Amino acid sequence: ELSACQCTVLFAQRLAIAGQQLEQVREYFAAGGSVVALIGPAAALENWPEWEAEILGIQRAGRIPGSSGALVAPAPFAEGHPILRSVEGLTHGASMTAWREVGGRPTALLTAGAPFRCEPVAWVRNQGGRRAFFTTLGDPADFQKPAMLQLLANAVLWASGDEETGGGQ
Q1: Residue 21: in which H helix or E strand, if any?
Q2: In angstroms, rounded to a whole number, what is the distance separating the alpha carbons of residues 77 and 97?
Q3: CA dihedral in degrees (57, 59, 61, 62; nearest 10)?
Q4: Which tens digit of pLDDT belongs to each residue from 109-140?
Q5: C-alpha separations of 74 from 5, 18, 33, 123 in Å
Q6: Rounded Cα distance, 121 and 124, in Å
Q7: Tell me, what CATH number does 85's domain have?
Q8: Mean pLDDT over residues 88-93, rounded?
Q9: Is the distance from CB of 139 to CB of 148 less than 8 angstroms?
Q10: Which residues contact 108 (CB under 8 A, 6 or more apart)?
Q11: What pTM was estimated for this model as a whole?
């Protein structure tokens, strides 16, 4: 049951859950449930399009053409964050999506360079006891990279409140 989870991992696009399933997801987040989310170019929860703004504090602002293959680096002031422990050499394999903050002050952890701009590609947000990590990384090729797998493992540990015992191992 979702309510018993310390952390949920969400990797979906246009997931059309409804009824009791959607209500369980809403209740999980309302109770302070933590999340690690890999966000694609389309809304993850089709029947709750506001979830990104409400839970993650961001809103989609459009695609950035020509941004595939951008080098990923720690955002200013993010060095030393437990999610970034032992994470090096990432690239953004797909075209990037631009986001804007809409509330709750998400903190950028990673950025990637696109033509004439640098955009966040991973953030954290603490709100009401809930820890949220979210990233636009997640192209199929990304999962072949040890750094991506380390990033996700660290994120799950951090979101679960256990980053000191296992992150970077």
Answers
A1: helix 19-30
A2: 22
A3: 120
A4: 998 876 667 888 899 999 888 999 999 888 88
A5: 29, 37, 26, 11
A6: 11
A7: 3.40.50.880
A8: 81
A9: no
A10: 75, 78, 120, 122, 123
A11: 0.88
For residue 169, pLDDT over 60 is answered with: no
Q: Is residue 28 situated within a structural domain?
A: yes
88 domain-assigned: yes
Structural domains counted in the chain: 1
**Is the residue at 113 inside a domain?**
yes
Confidence of residue 25 (pLDDT cuts 50, 70, 90): very high
56 has a pLDDT exceeding 70: yes
How far apart CA 153 and CA 39 sit, in angstroms, is 17
Range of the domain at 46: 2-160
Confidence of residue 60 (pLDDT cuts 50, 70, 90): confident
pLDDT in the model for residue 167? 45
Residue 39 in any domain: the answer is yes
- Region 91-106: mean pLDDT is 75
pLDDT at 159 over 90: yes
Classify the C-alpha dihedral 30-32-35-41 as positive or negative.
Answer: positive
Check: CB of residue 57 under 8 Å from CB of residue 106.
yes
The alpha carbons of the chain give a radius of gyration, in whole angstroms, of 15
